[in-house]
Each structure stands twice: as C-alpha cells, then as structure tokens.
Amino acid sequence: MDSLIESFLEFKEVNAGRSVRTVQVYRLALNRLAVFMGDRGLLEASQDDLLAYTGPYLHKMGLAPGSRFTHIVAVKEFYKWAASTRKISTSPAASVPYPARGQSLQRVMTLKNAEKLLWAADFQTFEGVRDGAMLALLIGCGLRVTGLVDLNTSNIIEDELDGKVRLLLKVKEKGNKERKLSIPPEADLLLRMYMASEELKHIDRTLPDGDQVLFVTVRNRNVPAHDYHGEKRRFNRRSVLMMVKKHGENAGIPEDQLHPHALRHLFGTELAEEEVDILVRQRLMGHADPKSTAIYTSMAMRKLTRESDRGNPLTKMRTPVTDILKRLNKDG
Q1: Is residue 129 part of a domain?
Q2: CATH code for the domain in which residue 58 is found
Q3: Are residues 129 and 194 in contact, defined by beta-carbon separation less than 8 angstroms?
C-alpha cells in the first residue's frame, strides 16, 4: 500500500507540479487513512468509510476544520487519480463534503512593529545580518516562508532598471509556480551585506548541482559535524518562525503578530493602501485567484480612514467638538 501512495504522490509532484509541502500534507493524510482502514487496503474503502474517516475519526484526533479540509482534499485527489488510472471504477470520495470553516481574521503586523522587528536583529553579528536580510525579504517582497527558505544563490539575479543595477528574485512557491520580483533597495543592500559577509564564505553550502543554499543555519544538533553541509545547512520553515518570534519578543511586539505570514499580509495591505492596480498586486503576491488579492483591499485601513474622514456626514456639519478638532489639527 505504501507503493500505491508513493505512486500517487510522485504523480502529483512530477506531473501535476504540486509543491513539496503539498506532497507532505497529502502523505500525512493518506498514511492516516491507511491506519484507519486497518487490514483493508485503501482501494477497498467505501464512501461510508471515507465519511467516517474525514468526520468523526479526524475530529477525535483533535484536527480543526481547516486541517480536516486539507485531508479531504488529499483523499479526493487520491481516489480521483485511482479512478483515472483504472485501479477502481469510480471514486468513493467524490461526494465527501468539506467541513464548514469560519473565515479567520488575517494577522497583519503594523508598519511600526515591522520596523521594530527589523531593528531587533544585531547587525554586528553574522546571524543578525542574515536575519535582517531574511526579514527584509519577507517584509519588502511579501514572500511565503517556503519561498524564502527554498532560495538558492541562483535565484538572485542582477538587472539594470531605470539606469540602476538592481537585484531581482526568482521565487517558486505554491504549485511550484515561478515569479520574478524586484527587491526593494533596502532589502537589496541587506542581502548584499549578507552575501558578502566573511563568515558565509567559509560555510560549505554547495548543492550537488553546483548551486548554493542562500540562507544557512550556523548550528544543528541533529546533524553530525561531518555531514553538516550543502542542503543540511538550509533554514527550514520552523526556524524562520522561531527567528521572528525571538526578535519580535525582544522588540515587545504583540504575540498575535509574531508570525512570518503577518509580514506577507503587511506587504499585501500596503500595496492596497497605495492603490496599486489589483492585477499588479496579484502578480506581486503570487495569487492564482484575484479574490485572494482583493481581501487586502478591505484591510487597507489608512485608505479607508482617509475616505471616511473625507466623506462622512459629521465632517459636513458643525458639532459640539468641531472647534476643538480644528485647534488640535492646527496644533498638530
């Protein structure tokens, strides 16, 4: 049965272009299903079996609706593939419903806190310069964490834009889709400082194809010293989260903003604040669906506040505090 799951996962990664992260989620969901089925094979599952697995079974495991949703996607995709390759006649998962999910509020780091976070890194140290460069790319390019940690030196290219030499970024994220981004001047300089650091020159981060890992760790207790090179030097998603939390806590930033994705939300919100065209925003954010991009328009509070202040009825009448506000605005 393991070989069946692996054949499906290979198809999704190679033929369908799913990301490594998506394949990992699919593998987890299907291995859990195999445990649920016991002595019976996955191809023997009925619709009732799948309803029991995706409903009560996963719920008792403590999975929230959002996590169950991804498991159901994996199950549906697996049996769709099994039917298309004639391993079964029809998919028993076709009518399995998705759980209802409440829409969670996006966690956005404020501009002020993002500035504090960036300054929290110790730029007198190699690790501080590295962290500053990573944070600048998260803030200034809106990268997903997977896109950040997967970067190699070949993903950084130089080009001339408006008569100036600028660094550009080739990044692959969801669905293994590649997009090219210009790196803001501030992130550009921090990245150049990191890549030029003397410490980095002495770290073996070369990959089998001759490329090099971009952002490296300096210690890993789980890897023997003789094996600590190349791919095993790469930062992982959890390390980025821990780095953001460490600097954020030191800077006194509220805990609900201490997540790398909060920086991506800041990037999207600021694009909306500046009324960047939604198609441009969609490309910069790497969204397949413009509806995902449109969410940030509703989060652009400075723009909404300006428009509200300009057009609301209270600004067009004399109120008990109108004179006070005028004096305060004049003094300010």
Answers
A1: yes
A2: 1.10.150
A3: yes
User: Tens digits of per-residue pLDDT, 260-289?
Assistant: 989 988 888 888 777 777 777 777 777 666
Both tokens assigned to 154 = 């070949």
Q: Could you tell me the CA-to-CA distances from 246 to 67, 241, 250, 255 in Å, in that order?
A: 27, 9, 6, 11
Verify that 121 and 240 share a domain, yes or no.
Answer: yes
Residues 278 and 179 in one domain: yes
Cα gap 182→332, rounded to integer Å: 37
What is the β-pairing status of strands 156-161 and 178-182? unpaired
Return the CA Rg of the chain.
Answer: 24
Q: 234-246: per-residue pLDDT in tens?
A: 999 999 999 999 9
Longest dimension (CA), the chain: 79
Structural domain boundaries, residue 56: 2-84
Condensed to tens digits (0 to 9), the pLDDT of residues 145-177 reads 888 999 999 999 888 877 777 888 888 766 567
How many helices and strands (H and E) does the chain possess?
Answer: 16, 3
Q: What is the DSSP letter of 314?
A: G
308 within domain boundaries: no
Burial class (CB in 10 A: 0-12, 13-18, 19+), 301: middle
* pTM across the whole model: 0.64
Rounded CA separation 250/227 (Å) = 33
Tell me how far apart the alpha carbons of residues 72 and 77 are, in angstroms, rounded to a whole number: 8
Residue 227, φ and ψ in degrees, nearest 5: -105, 5
The single-letter code of the amino acid at 84 is S
166/102 Cα distance (integer angstroms): 42
